[in-house]
Amino acid sequence: MAQAEKLRNGHADWQSERQRLRADLGGRMKAERQAAGLTLEAAAQRSGLALSTIHKIENGRVSPSYENLVRIARAYEIGMERLFSADHESPQTTRMTVTKAGQGRIVRSRNFEYEVLCNALADKKIIPLVTLVERRAPLTPADLEAHDGEETLYVLSGRVELVVEHYAPVTLELGDCAYFDSTLKHGLRALDDTETKIFWACTYTDLGTKEPRP
C-alpha cells in the first residue's frame, strides 16, 4: 500500500512538473513570436504549422516535437537556443561556454525530456542535449519525423530502438553510437522501463534565404 501511494504521488508530481515545463516553454515561444513582430496567423504561415498548434504550445496545452521546434525557430529567424533560454534581454556574445553537470535547461517535448547544454552560446550550429527517452509502443510511420540537418546519439543508460527511413530498426545499448541524416524520417523509443538517457547532438542550420516578414 505504501509503495502504491508513493507511485501515485510520484506520478502526480511528474504531471505537475510536466505542465510547468510546458508552460515555461510556451511562454518563451510566445515572447519570441511577439519580439519577431508576428501574429499567430503570420507565425503559422511562416512555420507551416497550424495556428491552433502554435496557440496550444504557447498556452502550455501540448508539447512540441523537435521538428516543430526547428520550424518555429526558423520562422522567427532565431537560433534554437532562444527557445530554451530564460534570458531574453542580455545579448549573447560569448563564443565559449560550459554547462556543469545537471545545470542544463530542462525542456519537455513529446516523448522526450531534454536537458539543453551550453545554452549561453548564441547562433550555435550544433544543439547538444542529454535526453530522457520514454518507453512506448513500436513506432509507426506516423511517429517518424524529418527535418534539415544531421544527428548523432550516444547511449548513456538503458536501451533504445532507432528507426530511420530505408533502414532496418536498430537496438542501441550502453556505449553504442549512431549518426544519421535528419532529412530521413526517424524516431526513437526506449525499450525498457529503466531510466534511458542518451547524449543527442543535432545540427541546426538556417535555410540560407530569409523571406521578408509580413
Keywords, separated by commas or semicolons:
30% helix, disordered C terminus, 214 residues, 3-stranded antiparallel beta sheet, 6-stranded antiparallel beta sheet, alpha+beta, single chain, 5 helices, 24% strand
Q: How would you characterize this protein structure?
A:
This protein is α+β, with helices and mostly antiparallel strands and 214 residues long. Helices cover 30% and strands 24% of the residues. It is built from five helices and nine strands; from the N terminus they run H-H-H-H-H-E-E-E-E-E-E-E-E-E. The protein has helices at residues 2-35, 40-47, 51-58, 66-75, 81-84, and strands at residues 105-109, 112-116, 126-133, 150-157, 160-164, 170-172, 177-181, 186-190, 197-203. The strands form two sheets. The protein has a six-stranded antiparallel sheet. A three-stranded antiparallel sheet has the order 6-5-8, with no helix packed on it. A hairpin with a 5-residue loop joins strand 5 and strand 6. It is globular, with a radius of gyration of 18 Å. The model is unreliable at 206-214 (pLDDT under 50).
